[in-house]
Amino acid sequence: MKKHFVCGFVGLGLIGGSIARAMRRSHPGCDLLACDLNQDALSAAVSDGVINEAFPEIGPDFSRCDYIFLCAPVSENDKNLLLIQKYISPACILTDAGSVKTNIHQHIQKAGLENQFIGGHPMAGSERTGYWNSKALLLENAYYILTPCEKTPQKALTDFKDLISSLGAIPLILTSSQHDYVTAAVSHLPHVIAASLVNLIRESDSSDGIMKMIAAGGFKDITRIASSSPSMWQQICMTNRENILSLLDAYMKALSKVREQIRSSDGKQLYAFFDQARDYRDSFTDTSSGPIKKTYAINIEIADEPGALASIATILALHQISIKNIGITHNREQEDGVLKVEFYQESGIEKAIHVLSAKGYTVYPRN
Fold first, then answer.
1. Which of 63, 22, 42, 283 is nearest to 165 (CA)?
2. Phi, psi (5° rounding) for residue 170?
3. DSSP code of 187?
4. pLDDT digits (tens, 9 = 90+) for 113-122
5. String of b and e for 12-38 (b: at least 16 CB within 10 Å)?
6. How far is residue 35's CA from residue 42's CA, in Å, rounded to a whole number?
7. Beta carbons of 228 and 198 less than 8 angstroms apart
8. β-pair partners for 34
9. Could you tell me the pTM of the whole model?
């Protein structure tokens, strides 16, 4: 990986802005260029010292880039790819930041850019959008999936992987088809299910809203992701349609199976159904034991530095705040903060926020 390089960003919203900030933090001497339709975002990025040069559209200056990140909405990347193709240097590594990979890989193949494209998907994000909500720590300890082409040179992949690691993220290499199937299962389908559950309650609730009133516990926790951007998830469902449909069919069969077990009062199979789900769920690295219930947790922005986690634990212990669970959050597509701290009681949240905020930490209640 070069010590000094030029990096261009096509789109400077939440993700593009966060990658640029992380780049500026980790490689202060690099030159960063950006174009975006939002001129206020570009002006703010230049004023912040994040971007060296800002442009209203893709142009010849991007031919100087060693790396170019396509960070506009997925629906715009096809058009931007055609524009950037006019100026991209043969030595430049081109990447994107979209949550669906097969479509962009198909367009890369048509454009004849397979030898210099590496798909990218930082598994980090927020319900907030725009450059003003971007932050370098958004990538800290987050999985960053890379989907190289068959023709991507090994050295280019190694260099780009090193660059992503230098930003504090955890690179994970998959094929584009693997990526889309995996994310359909663990991200896309759950969003469809969460939204359908919320709509079911909305349609089934009484006129006085009793269901809504008492849904603030486990139901709110398992449907939190339904608060995400409707536009973004509309695009994801349309671009990763086949994988989502396949998994949705499998899920509907699973629902039909458990429906029959409930109808026939098959206690043995029902027990196995919940027991297997519990065991597998509890094997996740960031989960606590027991059934789904209301969790009392906060997320905290911290740098990945020696002693950072211990400092948080010490501060809370000195103020007699009991911690139930603590750990780094790797997959933060809909989470704010790097460190998740879980408490036994709701009162621990307010006290911890007060204490940590006074120490200069940025803290987010986990809704």
1. 22
2. -115, 100
3. I
4. 999 999 999 9
5. bbbbbbbbbbbbbbebeebbbbbbbee
6. 7
7. no
8. 9, 54
9. 0.79
